[in-house]
Amino acid sequence: MTTTWDPTAPGVLRLPSGRLVRGRALRRPLPPGAQPTFALYLLGRQPTPVAWEHRWLRWPDFRLPSDRTATAHALREAWARAVDERVEIACGGGKGRTGTALACLAVLDGVPNDQAVAYVRQHYAAGAVETPWQRRFVTRFR
To answer: What UniProt keywords apply to this chain's record, in alphabetical order (predicted)?
Structure first.
């Protein structure tokens, strides 16, 4: 039994290492198929309860995370767990905050900071990482 995502499923990003992470918009219905085993929800307020393990990061729409240290720790945890778990990263629209977080995971996976936004736009969504400060956050992420 596999515990990672189907690489052809909507919203699934393959990182250079082969790790699979799903990005999605919480304003849309949960996609059919497998559920996450772990998720990071990037929202200005606490999300509705879900049946799987998750973390909430206070991250208002079009902004940056409220606690950058906690965000870095949570992203490292998500990246590590994506080796053998179905990790989901999601915000309201699934583009700006989700794209920013996915670009940070790409950095953790070895993509140079200055290329991570382009990587996510090519392999996840063309409109990912919406604001200049989100792009700057990725270029400075460690």
So the answer is: Hydrolase
